[in-house]
Amino acid sequence: VLAATDAGAVGDPILQPGNRDGGRNHRDHVGELKRWVRLRERNNVVDAAVCSVFEDVEPDDLTLPGIGLVDRWWTQFERAVFVNKVGRTTGLTRGKVTALGLRNLDVDYHGRVCRFDQVIEVKGVDRTPVFSDGGDSGSLVVDDTRTAVGLLFAGDDEATFVNPIAEVLSALQVRLVT
Amino acid sequence: MERRSVTFKEADQVANKLDRKLGSPPWLRGIGVEPDAAEGFAVTVRIASDAPTPALPERMQGVAVHVTRRDRARPRVA
Fold first, then answer.
1. How far apart are the first and last CA of chain A?
2. Which of A42, A83, A159, B46 is a plausible cystine mate for B70, CB 3.0–4.6 Å?
3. Residue B30: helix, strand or coil by DSSP?
4. pTM to 2 decimals?
5. Rounded to whole angstroms, how far apart are CA atoms B44 and B66?
6. A47 contacts in B (CB within 8 Å)?
7. Are B32 and A103 within 8 A, CB to CB?
């Protein structure tokens, strides 16, 4: 999580690890909040933010552990496929796309309900029946060909919800490093 | 007679039609296109756990319409 839901400000410190994982201001300050997508009551497609990373903070590796280097991303997603993600809470998990183009999906942001469209639904499979849990928001979801499918943002007791990657990249005006 | 496989586009059109028909009632939890092993794709209308089952056709334009009960989603924050 980079931006507290619609309560962040440009320049907010980004810590790695995050403060809930023992990260401390100054010592673990790796970047600053750059921009985010404002949530509305309805017609949301993306819940995401992007930060700048300080020049002296070199990423160890661009490989997703257990998955590999992301190769490309979907521009139009109309297939049911197996997917994987690495998240802060549940680590590496495997799932299957169980719904596409979900519209009118209500997400409860601590009492403020925001409605999303174009959502991809994923359910866990194999040894990871729970695909994600709290804290996994922001995980990149990729298929078995290491093609980025979307960005994880929400879930309920049964499934995980993902924003389509093309919409995320467009909304944040960023490109995916492959 | 063997049923023709439904494409994503066909199911998506039905989902759009249902979306317009239903509007935004408080019990609606989302309308999606789901892969269906037997028919290609189907449409699923998700409703709140405690909501009465809405009167919906079993099929629209040859596309199966399922109703499932779901809790409200929450952001996956720590």
1. 22
2. B46
3. strand
4. 0.94
5. 5
6. 75
7. yes
Asked if the Cβ–Cβ distance from A80 to B78 is below 8 Å, we say: no
Q: CB of A68 within 8 A of CB of A84?
A: no
The pLDDT tens digits for A103-118 are: 999 999 999 999 999 9
Structure tokens belonging to residue A93 = 């998990």
Rounded Cα gap, residues A144 and A177, in angstroms: 18
- State pLDDT tens for residues B7-56: 999 999 999 999 999 998 999 999 999 999 889 999 999 999 999 999 99
CA distance B13 to B62: 12
Closest CA to A52 of A2, A5, A17: A2
Q: Are B28 and B52 in contact (CB under 8 A)?
A: no
- Does residue A78 carry a pLDDT above 90? no
Tokens of A34: 């750059």
Q: Identify which of A5, A104, A113 has the shortest CB distance to residue B19.
A: A104
**DSSP SS3 for A14:** strand
* Interface predicted TM-score of the whole assembly (ipTM), two decimals: 0.91
CB pairs under 8 A between A and B: 101
Of B12, B72, B73, the CB nearest to A101: B12
Across B17-33, b (16+ Cβ under 10 Å) vs e yields ebbeebeeeeebbbbbb
